[in-house]
Fold each of these.
Amino acid sequence: MAVMRAKSAIDKIRPHMIEAVGHAAAPVAIHLNSNESVYGPSPLAAAAARAAIAGIERYLENPDAALAPAIADRFGLQAARITVGQGSDDLLARLARAYLGPGTELIRSENGYLKVPNYAYANDADVISVPDDNFKPSIDHMIAAISERTRIVYLANPENPAGTYLSGAEVRRLHAAIPDDALLIIDSAYEEYVNAPDYEPAHRLVEEAKNVVMCRTLSKIFGLAGARVGWAYGPDDVIDSLRRIALTFPVASPSVAATIVALEDRGHTEFVRNATLSGRNWLSSELKGLGLDVIPSQANFVLVRFPDPEKTAEAADAALRASGIAVRRFASPAYRDCIRITIGLPDDLRACVAVISSFLNGES
Ligand SMILES: Cc1ncc(COP(=O)(O)O)c(C=O)c1O
């Protein structure tokens, strides 16, 4: 009798995150593991979501019509070239579905955003993961990997889990080497936290080129991770393809209501940005002061390496988790010595540093 089989490449998909060993049952009091905003959304956005529950029996027919003008207004973009989805991961998955298939390739940086290969495998495409340069994507390696089978080059800028970034000039050098029949995806989930002067907002290249699409999210600085809203900005034909393969009624009505209001509340995002950047500076310098290797971050988290083989990242993770603090470790070998810490409230970061300090001093 024939047996049901999923597409063969789906078997290549593996979990990429690691749970803290031995403390799975310890209650988590401080969440520094998923790069959510510890400051939450604008209070006005939460109120709008609550009010929208009143109409929950109805489908929201066209979330693009509701949200694209608000997004365009907030960021100074063209509304017709914006489409929204269930988080930016929905758009990444749809881009893979629209442009990848058997015999095609997606190029990525090997320690870059770890969900992306899964979307390629789900379409039976090949993933070319190229080496990086101390967690910073290597433009030279990405360019060297381009072939006639390349259909997508994926770059998160800034990267996750490392927080590294590429300058505008570097991104443009990569784009110049990509053929017209391949798409450059710039995933700018953390763009709002960047303060490097040579970073270039990704929308500029989108507007100049025919094969560049940018993905953005409401999950980070806007504090709406649970609402699951993301958006893409790209050429008309790419946006058209994304719309054609969208789920029916892809975004929940309370999420749309919250997003419209969150986009308008510039004071809230300004406050979150300032608080996060000062937390990032503080945490980075404290961890360096403890003798750890901190990867310079342009995002709302910091990746830190534990260089002493006697004081491993795995043990540090367990010590934190035993104190009720959840941080993130990853399965890929490059991250064996590392933990990623989301920028939390000042007291939470102080608690986190205190646990790491006692751990390194043999007190825990
Ligand atoms: C680089 C990057 N892209 C995309 C996402 C997905 O975000 P969402 O689906 O919540 O919009 C994340 C989430 O952590 C991310 O780090």
Amino acid sequence: MLDRPLISLADTDTAEDRAAERTRLLALEAEYCSFGDTVHYTETPKIFDRCEGSFIYDDDGQAFLDLQMWYSAVNFGYANPRLNEAMVRQLNRLPQVASQYLHREKIELAADIAMGAQERFGRKGRVHFNVGGAQAVEDSLKLVRNASAGKSLMFAFEGGYHGRTLGASAITSSYRYRRRFGHFGDRAQFIEFPYHFRGPRGMSKEEYGLHCVKQFERLFESEYNGVWDPKAGKCEYAAFYVEPIQGTGGYIIPPMNFFPELKRVLDKHGILLVVDEIQMGFYRTGKLWSIEHFGVEPDVLVFGKALTNGLNPLSGIWAREELINPTVFPPGSTHSTFNANPLGTAVALEAMKMMREEDFATSVKDKGAYFLAGIQALKAKHAIVGDVDGLGLALRIEICEPHDSYTPAKALVDRMVDEALLGDLVYGGERFGLILDIGGYYKNVITLAPALTISHGEIDMALALLDQLFLRVAPR
Ligand SMILES: Cc1ncc(COP(=O)(O)O)c(C=O)c1O
């Protein structure tokens, strides 16, 4: 088995050969791979073989239009030639160097991100790299605990997701991710997020945003609400962790007045604002950082995923100087063998350059508006679509029971995802599949994160395929 050359499954001769190879691999997987990741959320895991642009292909060469792009890690399209070339250039020059030494790409990337943040937020800061989003979240936890003289308590949102390491899952709202493992650190206090579609009836989106802030602010009215010592003027909590647009929570876009109001309360009580841009950063919403839509300045910003277009697990934090200067965050405060690795930083540097050269602010806004208009038309046609919304190319379709277009219909969405993976939807006389992702408080939201490079033609195709899918699964 091990001396067999690694070839593309699609190159194996016949459909029978490919089916036999698939069976062999799945049997090995069932025997030797841990089931602890998310592969076995589905009963029949799918094997993919190659990818390009907005499409990913299975071992039979069947094309799937990807509407989730590796959970928004591949913003610039699969196998992006420019980014692949940057990777190859680095591979041929300096692919490896221990993280205690310097290389040009790390320095330039940190400077690029920090100078950009200074332009946007008016504050000098520094960048620290790590691998993977959750690890960067861990670093941010160290940073804010250190800056607040060891306070270990955090606020975070209901519906928030920050990763699955022990520290990150303590500030992630789902108990499901903690249940088996007990508590290593303090879990966050989870605060209501203005999820308007499921909020109280009779309130506008803006009124509901203000209502949520008021509820939070109430905690500081008296020492008996458990978070604030009015005599000392001190809060027991170090920071508030936010996703400006909730990702795993179901691509929920709060009203524009929400974060400015929240920030006012945080500033008043000395609570740091940590903005998690891991999923919504890098122009997913039409701005480099999604928090820019709200005109609010973060104290710490966390990023990952699309920084390298998913070519390399590189993540990081930006923090304002007071929190991360070498006196308060000295050498050795945190370390990973692979942090700031040269392959990742080289690709990220090229991706940042691309983001400056191309007008993603305009193209993502335009394509997002076009896609949103299309899913609004689908909502008008299909009673199973309860709510649609979008900011840039972060779009949501909330699937509900058709009798009221409101009761969450999780089983229906699960079926949709499975049916989409059959690869037998039809567009222009050809068969296609769809790659969809599910999120939301009730796991009934299709969260759409197409490539930012998706064409208008591919958006038309996505809409036609979704239309077919909705017709196929809708109860009659
Ligand atoms: C907002 C947010 N934070 C943190 C993470 C964790 O990142 P990773 O999966 O790279 O550890 C994710 C991943 O989906 C995310 O969406």
